[in-house]
Amino acid sequence: MQVVIISGLSGSGKSIALNVLEDAGYYCVDNLPAPLIVNLVDHSRGRQHRHVAVAIDMRSGESITMLPQQLETLNAQQIQTRFIFLNARNDILIQRFSETRRRHPLTAENITLEEAIQREREALATLAALGHHIDTSSLGPNALRLFIKDFIAECKTPSPLTLLFESFGYKHGIPLDADLVFDVRCIPNPHYDPKLRELTGIDPEVIGFLEALPEVSRMTQDIRCFLDTWLPVYMRDNRAYLTVAIGCTGGQHRSVYFAEKLALHFRDLTHVLVRHRSLTEYRNHYTRR
């Protein structure tokens, strides 16, 4: 049996994620108190459900603090568990609640929406490190659906560590889900060439432009050397996921190129995933061992 647990901040997209899993054939339960998850798994096994997805968040109150203990119990029972934690910046969450006119679950008469979001963030801080962290700040619903579909596909590929290379644009902010961040804005920008402006770092013309620059080769080598040195350490630390974010100004040319280039190097070492946060089309690539 495989159990996917979804948690995160209110307004970060948990309902969208759960709907994607339901469409993929998972038996889904929303707003389950953490102490009941083992009972749910026992019930699901009796009903011969092979794939179960559960949303657990602050709506169930303080019982969510028992989630790590429940996960340990499931792992001891040889239940395959995957954890998704959805996050977003405070200003984005405030905007989403304003647009939908929903009440935050921690809203009270004596605190503001921003204060409620901050309280929830502090209460969930220890859960963010339990699994796959996704920053939905700059993701529309369709992009988030693609990310969750990618996560489902990754669940079918056993690997000691999933290495995610994520390109982004600094003008949109550094992704909250980044474990390591490399800044490639010092590389000449193809944006200033009119012939390359509308292209991306995946297009051959942009690749040719960048690979003609000596500093691109040196930057690639330096980042690759750092990861070659430290990736085994992260693996020994029993990390299931490591997100390496590569940033340029707009997230269209340089960061996209570097993310793709680095992914090619590491594909023989572990399971590799590539995401391009700032591209209009989210092109996701998997390279399996």
Automatic annotation (TrEMBL):
Binding site for ATP: G8, L9, S10, G11, S12, G13, K14, S15
The UniProt record lists the keyword ATP-binding: yes
Tree of life domain: Bacteria
Entry keyword Cell division: no
Keywords on record: ATP-binding, GTP-binding, Nucleotide-binding
GO MF annotation terms: ATP binding; GTP binding
InterPro entries attached to this UniProt entry: P-loop_NTPase (IPR027417), RapZ-like (IPR005337), RapZ-like_N (IPR053930), RapZ_C (IPR053931)
Residues engaged in binding GTP: D57, M58, R59, S60
Residue ranges annotated for the RapZ-like N-terminal domain, each copy included: 1-152
HAMAP family assigned: RapZ_like
Protein name stated in the entry: UPF0042 nucleotide-binding protein
